[in-house]
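Thread amino acids onto this structure.
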């Protein structure tokens, strides 16, 4: 018998096959990804690292926006396999390399990338400060870290009713959207995800102002936060090395 997979990884392996037909169908997600690409200022020739690439929704938008090159990493082999299929299908193999590794373990060496991007992946990282520092190290001088994520503080005591109300308010807006745009399949997946947010079971969201603080502490300058139009709980942060 092989080594047992950590719970969160197993959950993503399981989600991979229906990712594009659940979260991938929610307009809010695509609006956030488009905004992340726009504010990144991606240009031809740029080297872009996509952390937690999933099925490649963000990477494909970068590839369409500019003649850049993508390095994509994810902990899930299933997610990576689906992204690799798309890369083959669209004839993009020459512009994409991908590797199974985690944000915590990645080791690309200093000054490799013009842009490091991560959308709804880094809230899965519990110890965020070392990862933000390693992102900074992997960027070239003047390179940008682009983070699209949930602006929600789920830290604190699980039995604190105020914390629970805060998370439930977020979940209400997400679940209504999921049902409206992705139907029962999307609703079920996001509902299951909701429990994970409440119990910090592989989901460790912090408020966007905490991410700003983490970036400044890691030595980034010009940290700016862009709201995702129409979706108060989602923001895109850009920080320059
Ligand atoms: C919600 S999906 C986001 C996928 C893609 N970035 C997008 O916006 O559509 C989160 C992805 O992060 C990956 N992931 C979770 N924890 C990770 C970690 N510690 N390091 C790298 N990837 C991780 C999951 O396997 C999953 O593919």
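Threaded sequence (241 positions):
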């Amino acid at each position: 018998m092989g080594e047992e997979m950590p719970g969160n990884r197993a959950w993503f392996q399981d989600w991979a096959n229906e990712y594009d037909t659940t979260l991938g169908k929610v307009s809010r997600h695509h609006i956030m990804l488009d905004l992340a690409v726009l504010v990144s200022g991606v240009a031809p020739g740029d080297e872009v690292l996509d952390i937690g690439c999933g099925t490649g929704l963000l990477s494909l938008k970068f590839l369409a926006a500019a003649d850049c090159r993508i390095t994509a990493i994810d902990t899930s082999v299933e997610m990576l396999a689906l992204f690799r299929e798309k890369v083959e299908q669209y004839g993009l193999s020459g512009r994409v390399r991908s590797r199974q590794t985690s944000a915590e373990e990645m080791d690309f060496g200093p000054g490799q990338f013009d842009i490091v991007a991560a959308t709804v992946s880094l809230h899965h990282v519990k110890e965020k400060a070392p990862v933000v520092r390693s992102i900074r190290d992997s960027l070239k001088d003047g390179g940008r870290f682009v983070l699209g994520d949930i602006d929600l503080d789920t830290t604190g005591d699980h039995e604190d009713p105020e914390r629970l109300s805060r998370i439930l308010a977020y979940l209400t807006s997400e679940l209504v959207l999921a049902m409206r745009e992705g139907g029962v399949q999307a609703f079920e997946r996001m509902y299951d995800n909701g429990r994970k947010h409440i119990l910090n079971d592989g989901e460790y969201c912090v408020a966007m102002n905490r991410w700003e603080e983490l970036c400044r502490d890691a030595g980034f300058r010009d940290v700016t936060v862009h709201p995702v139009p129409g979706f108060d709980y989602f923001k895109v942060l850009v920080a320059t090395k």
